[in-house]
Description:
The chain is of the alpha+beta class and 142 residues long. The protein folds into 2 domains: 6-95, no CATH class; 110-142. The chain is built from 2 helices and 5 strands. It has helices spanning 78-89, 112-141; strands at residues 6-12, 18-19, 36-37, 41-49, 56-62. A 3-stranded antiparallel sheet has the order 1-4-5, with helices on one face. The protein has a two-stranded antiparallel sheet with strand order 2-3. The radius of gyration is 30 Å and the shape is elongated.
Amino acid sequence: NTDKTTVEKLFSSSDTSLATSNLSSPSVDANDPKNKKGPLPLAAAGTYKTGKENSQGRFVVVGSSAWAENSFINFNGNRDLALNTMNWLSSDEDLISIRPKEQEDRRITMTRSQLTWVRTITQFLLPLLVVATGVTVWWRRR
């Protein structure tokens, strides 16, 4: 390689994956000799000489852009992959990290009758149970 381009595989598919070139067929024939068996590279990164002294260009190639779409960016570390790719491409390696998960909004949705039931138990029945237990213990010790 005379242009000093280096390429490294970032990640690949599993051993049981299969790539087909016949996208018009609704089914995939695992025994078709045209199909390629996994593991298959899904993403690669590399560097190349830019022609300027002490200057390297960087590139990242991913098999599809679907992982970075709004509907998939929050799945399986896709956001970290996108941000870390941008940080590496801009030579900001110190910013590359696995970020902590954001807290999810975990609301409890209840009907009016369920809310009334929970309120009755927590505001009236449980305190009455504690008072009744205390009175019973006091009465027996007396």
